[in-house]
């Protein structure tokens, strides 16, 4: 196990020595004062001793407290995954997340997605009792990742050269260090940030593998490029512990090495601790002297090895449990996305059914004073059915009340008028003038029914809430989405097929019967 850094040890010793000296001085002064006071006021003398003892204890406590606060504070960057429960509760929370997934996965209709979620849930449950510590090494292709793994494992395990894309897939190796009871699984990932589709696939694989790790080693051989910085930022969003490995330091002068190190410290200060930047020379190059003598250099990874040992000894089990909790949370989020996508699809089928139903009702029985309030009764059942998709049971009265409130909003925002104008212009270009007046009213109702239905999808998705902007903002947003050319083209094509063509055929039959009757 590593000792405390020297500068911190000096500060601690100096602080304790200073307080100890003050205490000795105070004790001597208090003793003299006590002798003088005790003869005339014994009670006052005892109170004085009590106060001084308390002050001395407080000074010692303050030194230790602020020392820890100064040197062992948490990183100040914030994101959701860092706000994890304490170590003792993480295993329980992971199990609870898995139970939720297993309960809700039954409702998923996609068999492939269901099997994938069940398999990963089982893996997480099995992972809860593992003792193996997972380390993932990644970086760009020429940064020396494989050389670093070679040095850690102690034998050559992969091709080592400067070409990009040497490691095609993530390859794992088990090692055992004498200082640790845990076995270590080290995975050498594909190089990131390479050109072409092959490079993109390897980068995606590296990202997937990084999620599985307890500790990440991000390897660079120079200052961080913008693309490396963005990738590191992406990895940091998982809440993983990361060591930044500055490799190939044997290739730099002392001046250049310090310059790069200072730049790295400045760039990653929002992600991790400065002391988590480790300098290595995993595959040092032989140096040629003037007398043509070669100096063979051995790999310099001792600091990295000691750092890994210290991390596993001090926080290894916590990192394992944290990693499992992160994976269980991500699994839950993925399941929620699948379920919401499924619910959205089901809800849109309901909307599609009711929008043409309302259009047919209005065309067959034209409403003398058309507006959304007049079709609220029809939309009531649509709202109830969408609520059922999102597992909310609404009564007919509740559905009607929601339909009326949304109808008033549509009128208040003049969306009804806007829909008539938009559809009127398009219909004039697509159907005969004779049918425009008859069809316009029905299609406008269908169009507004769609806006209403999609607004209620948002309402139920957000747990029966319209959000901060209220119902007006939701309705206005859906109106803007449904007035785009791509949607309107599809909507009119469907309307012609489902409404206009049947209506035209029906009118032809009526006219034919009338004509036949007149001839008869």
From TrEMBL:
InterPro entries assigned: DUF697, GTP-bd, P-loop_NTPase
Transmembrane segments: 9-31, 43-64
Membrane topology value: Multi-pass membrane protein
Entries under SUPFAM superfamilies matching the protein: P-loop containing nucleoside triphosphate hydrolases
Alphabetized UniProt keyword annotations: Membrane, Transmembrane, Transmembrane helix
Subcellular localization(s) per the UniProt record: Membrane
Name of the protein: GTPase Era
């Amino acid at each position: 196990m590593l000792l405390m850094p020297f500068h911190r040890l000096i500060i601690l010793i100096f602080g304790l020595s200073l307080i100890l000296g003050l205490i000795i001085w105070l004790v001597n002064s208090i003793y003299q004062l006590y002798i003088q006071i005790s003869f005339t006021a014994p009670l006052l003398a005892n109170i004085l001793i009590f106060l001084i003892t308390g002050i001395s204890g407080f000074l010692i406590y303050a030194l230790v407290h602020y020392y820890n606060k100064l040197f062992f504070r948490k990183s100040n960057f914030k994101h959701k995954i860092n706000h994890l429960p304490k170590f003792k509760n993480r295993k329980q929370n992971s199990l609870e997340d898995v139970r939720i997934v297993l309960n809700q996965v039954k409702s998923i209709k996609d068999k492939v997605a269901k099997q994938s979620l069940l398999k990963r849930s089982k893996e997480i449950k099995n992972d809860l009792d593992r003792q193996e510590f997972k380390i993932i090494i990644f970086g760009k292709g020429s940064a020396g990742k494989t050389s670093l793994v070679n040095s850690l494992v102690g034998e050559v395990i992969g091709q080592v050269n400067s070409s990009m894309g040497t490691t095609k897939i993530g390859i794992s190796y088990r090692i055992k260090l004498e200082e640790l009871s845990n076995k270590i699984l080290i995975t050498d990932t594909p190089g990131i940030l390479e050109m072409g589709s092959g490079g993109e696939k390897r980068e995606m694989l590296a990202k997937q593998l990084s999620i599985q790790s307890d500790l990440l080693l991000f390897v660079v051989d120079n200052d961080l490029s913008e693309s490396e910085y963005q990738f590191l930022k992406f990895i940091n969003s998982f809440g993983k512990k990361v060591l930044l490995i500055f490799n190939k330091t044997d290739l730099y002068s002392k001046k250049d090495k310090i310059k790069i190190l200072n730049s790295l410290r400045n760039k990653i200060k929002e992600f991790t601790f400065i002391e988590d930047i480790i300098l290595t020379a995993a595959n040092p190059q032989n140096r040629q002297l003037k007398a043509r003598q070669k100096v063979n250099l051995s790999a310099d990874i001792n600091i990295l090895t000691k750092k890994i040992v210290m991390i596993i000894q001090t926080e290894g089990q916590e990192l394992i449990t944290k990693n499992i909790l992160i994976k269980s949370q991500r699994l839950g989020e993925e399941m929620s996305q699948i379920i919401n996508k499924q619910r959205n699809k089901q809800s849109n089928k309901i909307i599609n059914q009711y929008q043409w139903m309302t259009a047919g009702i209005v065309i067959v029985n034209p409403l003398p004073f058309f507006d959304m309030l007049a079709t609220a009764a029809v939309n009531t059942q649509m709202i109830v059915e969408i609520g059922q998709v999102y597992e909310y049971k609404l009564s007919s009265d509740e559905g009607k009340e929601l339909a009326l409130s949304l109808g008033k909003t549509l009128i208040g925002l003049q969306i009804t008028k806007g829909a008539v104008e938009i559809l009127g212009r398009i219909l004039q270009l697509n159907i005969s003038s004779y049918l425009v007046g008859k069809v316009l009213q029905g299609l406008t109702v269908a169009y507004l029914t769609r806006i209403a239905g999609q607004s209620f999808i948002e309402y139920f998705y957000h747990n029966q809430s319209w959000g901060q902007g209220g119902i007006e903002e939701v309705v206005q947003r859906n109106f803007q989405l449904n007035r785009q050319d791509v949607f309107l083209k599809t909507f009119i094509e469907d309307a012609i097929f489902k409404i206009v063509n049947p209506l035209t055929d029906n009118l032809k039959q009526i006219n034919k019967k009338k004509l036949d009757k007149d001839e008869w």
